Amino acid sequence: MLNRVMIINTGGTIGMVHSDPNDCDSPLRPANDWSEIIKGHPILEKYDTDYYQFNPLIDSSDMAPDIWIKIANVIFENYDNYRGFVVLHGTDTMAYTASALSFMLKNLNKPIVLTGSQVPLQFSRSDALQNLITAIEIAGNEKYGVRLVPEVCIFFRDTLLRGNRSRKVDATNYFGFLSPNYPPIAEVGADIRIIKDRILKTTNNKFYIDTKLNTKVIVLELFPGLDPNYLKCIFKENTDIKGVILKTYGNGNAPTKDKFIEVLKYITSKGIVIVDITQCTRGFVKMGLYEASAKLIDAGVISGVDLTPEAAVTKLMYLLGKNMTTDEVKKYMQIDLCGEQTISQYDFIYENLPFSDNFEIKAQIPEEVLKGELIEAVVRIKNITIREKENEDLKISVVIEGNENKNVEEYHINNKITKIVSREKYDFHGIFNHTLKSIIDRNHFLKIKVNANMKIKVENIKFSLYKEY
């Protein structure tokens, strides 16, 4: 069977057939089996496939987490017997299912290709036949002369997209799906051209599934005129909500008025995780990189970087299902797990610091940071509550060094930032650029040295590394 592809039909437009086979104007109904689906398309008979059909078939609008789990289990039970899998699915919620499967299928080294169509296969002008044939060939990979794609993906029209980067963007056009913040992993014309530098690497670790989900998540979208009290009422009445996807403006901007920020603090004080993603189709949330995001960070909101809404929802459900602490969920929401986001954020927070003019803290460098491209590093000193000399401006210098004795001048970097923190300000925010990677590459940990021109008392010092996928 390893030369065969398993087709899993969950439902959707692609598998609809006429209720009267002899009347092309008769109402559509779900197909009963594979033979009904391929009737009139003998070319599909040449492919080595086995067929599994959900009973009952699921309308895309009725897709739910328990069905994601069932799909994962079908793949797990048949994983060793097939070269790859094609999942037939309704288009409206396909990106949600693809995202969910990407988190639940662990150590994947076979293709899982989701596809569907805007028009049923039975129609003469349907997009279904091309979508289905190409999905089968991608799932069959080397059998059909196609490079192995060891991940969950969506094929539609002429592009293969990473599943957890995909979105349905058009209700009728045959080019119905896009991957806004990550390029296609294959382009399909006369040939199927897999772009190897864009696909995930295979693993030798044993395949397994992790299907525990906590679905107590909601999505909230900001708009001008939104009364923060409405949000507060939602969380007063629904005490079991565990996570919020907050769709904000632009690069993650939200109202800065105290009333709104206080509501966010109220929500996070209940142990609820708030993830900030952009309302825009393309782009990044840049929380933590710039001082403008300080109010949201202080309210307990975390960055969703460039997660799609579909990936953000399913990733949060997946992490909440692992019975982690709130801080652990926040940590892993900001780290790329399976290619779902471009930038990973690693935070180191130091609290209970003494009243002093000199601090030295250490940060052990995560193995993942050593493998990636460093974007920036940020040092933030939060809430400077006491100053030894209240009538003078505070001068703070931050130096980042490694655990070795080599002169940093060899690296041609600026590893020192000095700023004046006026009496009206209470935070220090310093950004170190990607050249800091020169130190990271040669060290097991970093030393962050903070020197001030007077003794100060601070709430905490936060050191963040931003790594590009």
From TrEMBL:
GO-annotated biological processes: aspartate family amino acid metabolic process
Positions contributing to substrate binding: S60, T91, D92
Domain L-asparaginase N-terminal stretches: 4-197
Every Asparaginase/glutaminase C-terminal domain range: 216-333
Record-level Gene Ontology MF annotations: asparaginase activity
InterPro entries: AsnA_fam (IPR006033), Asp/glu_Ase-like_sf (IPR036152), Asparaginase/glutaminase-like (IPR006034), Asparaginase/glutaminase_AS1 (IPR020827), Asparaginase/glutaminase_AS2 (IPR027475), Asparaginase_C (IPR040919), L-asparaginase_C (IPR027473), L-asparaginase_I (IPR041725)
Cited PANTHER family: 60 KDA LYSOPHOSPHOLIPASE (PTHR11707:SF28), L-ASPARAGINASE (PTHR11707)
UniProt name for this protein: asparaginase
Species the sequence originates in: Fusobacterium hominis
